[in-house]
Design goal:
Low-confidence stretches: none
Largest sheet: none
Radius of gyration: 13 Å
Mean pLDDT: 85
Number of strands: 0
Strand content: under 5%
Order of helices and strands: HH
């Protein structure tokens, strides 16, 4: 139950970041999306190492 709330909170935190990236000039977006992609990949990798928790 608490894990579901944490996942939901992380998802809710993602939306403002995506909006912020979309509001940036086009030239800046690719780097911002790449950085966000790296962070998300690291979070998924960490979850895998912890057994998906």
């Amino acid at each position: 139950m608490a894990d579901e709330r944490n996942e939901e909170a992380r998802g809710d935190a993602l939306l403002p970041r995506l909006k912020l990236i979309e509001d940036q000039p086009l030239e800046s977006r690719a780097a911002a999306y790449a950085h966000l992609h790296d962070e998300l990949r690291e979070a998924l990798d960490a979850a895998d190492r912890q057994g998906g928790r």
